[in-house]
Amino acid sequence: LPTFQLKAILLGSDLSVVASAEVKFDSDLPEFRTTGGANAGPNKFEFFVQPVMWVKAMDIVLDRLVMQEVDLGTVVAISGSAQQHGSVYWSKHGIAALQSLDSNKFLHAQVDDSAFVVNRTPIWMDASTSKQCLEMETAIGGMSKMVELTGSKCYERFTGPQIRKIYQQRTHAYEDAKHISLVSSFLASLFLGQVAPIDYADGSGMNLLDIRKKKWSKACLNACAPDLEERLGKPVSGFTILGKVSDYFVQRFCFSETCKVIACTGDNPSALAGMIVDQNWLSVSLGTSDTLMMSLLEPPNLEQGHVLCHPTEIEQYMGLLCFRNGSLVREAMNKLEADGNWEKFNELLDSTPRGNFGNMAVHFDEMEIIPKAKGTLRWNKDIDINSEDAKKGIIKFSSPQIEIRALIEGQMLHHRAIAEDMGFLFGSESKILATGGASVNKSILQVIADVFNAPVYQQTESEAALVGAAYRAAYALYINNNDTKDIKSYRDYILSLTPNLLNLVCEPNKDSESIYVPMLQRYRDMASILESQ
């Protein structure tokens, strides 16, 4: 359940896709008037969804599978992935309705508006809670304390500040909320026929969970809203079997009575589960914003990154870094220097040597997240960090190809520097998994291989979050059915059933490390100048 659609896939016992169906919110459910699956609120930075839309989509998506003559009676386990940070506020009536569903009626006719005390519920796009973020951080002793406890500073889109805003502005609704779900645990609740617990990984995106102890932080709960723990319930591991599927689904859609519901999780952790990579891998998603995902043995205290409980390695953590200046900056450069033609852009990029004759650039067209800086700085090989020229740099490089290479190398040096700061250890075993829109561009991938000094792979399965949910369901069933002594790791078990869907795209050149390690320090100097301006 990402922002724009609800999609279901059924995997066979060999983990290949047997069937799929989807419901696109904007076109299939026009009565909710969404754009990209969300509604803009009345005030600046506000975005919401009516939870009934998601319920109605569930009716439709299962009907579409039945229309394809898919035998849902063969399903042994269900799990899910959902957009992170959104919250759902159950009424007393809603919980009762969930537990006594009539299979002769649609789901949305029973779990309707009256099931929720907040009918316009905030989702991850909502950034209207700056005041609540400040209040929560102040209450627990500052930003660094929040990072240390929950893995992230207070972010406006995170669930804790959103709950606090509802408590402050709609106190009666908060008081009437018997239970608060994340979108992922809401999805599990529909299948379970009762309110499902939140899993550790998705719970890490709330500014409420102590990620080391895997329990709600008392200090954060108190800073957020009163009597919150009883509304959230106890968090659980992502491999928890929550129970059997509700009778409603058995009678209406012919699911088996023994079909198990596994805890659902957020889309970023679920994507990591779907990538079936280990701690030597760094996932680089090249999109509107570039995102890095990694496995970490210890949580770093990095004020601008996110650290979540790992979705599949219970003792590990997952690092998540978002960079605002991604493909939009690449597209703007393409328009300017290559007439918007990507073939020409790649020819120009490939025609310049690695290291770009010492020409480097940092392009932060929008205010970057890490470091917090905006602006453009270009240096040639002669500029010294201590010189007067260092602050202003040079106006423009001498050719389009130097401009293009300086941008791409600069972006990737930036990504590598921050990944190192987060605790990712680059070495001879490191590998890169490239995903997202620009991952089809082999010229850009070659720069990534060289700058990171690591081979770059692509995944043939494009919907990692969705297959990750099914993989987790399969593994939860496996560990539940087997003796603990002989249990394979998550990755080994999944790879024993399915070929690894990763293709090697490019490898680093032998001189990469000697070229880019000195440039990495130079990049850091440039970024700190922009940050201080």
UniProtKB/TrEMBL annotation:
Signal sequence residues: 1-20
UniProt entry keywords in alphabetical sequence: ATP-binding, Carbohydrate metabolism, Kinase, Nucleotide-binding, Signal, Transferase, Xylose metabolism
Listed GO biological process terms: D-xylose metabolic process; xylulose metabolic process
Reactions catalysed, as given in the entry: D-xylulose + ATP = D-xylulose 5-phosphate + ADP + H(+)
All residue ranges annotated as the Carbohydrate kinase FGGY C-terminal domain in the record: 283-477
Keyword Cell membrane included in the entry's annotation: no
Superkingdom of this protein's organism: Eukaryota
Keyword Signal: yes
SUPFAM superfamilies documented for this protein: Actin-like ATPase domain
All residue ranges annotated as the Carbohydrate kinase FGGY N-terminal domain in the record: 117-274
Family from the record: Belongs to the FGGY kinase family.
Protein name: Xylulose kinase
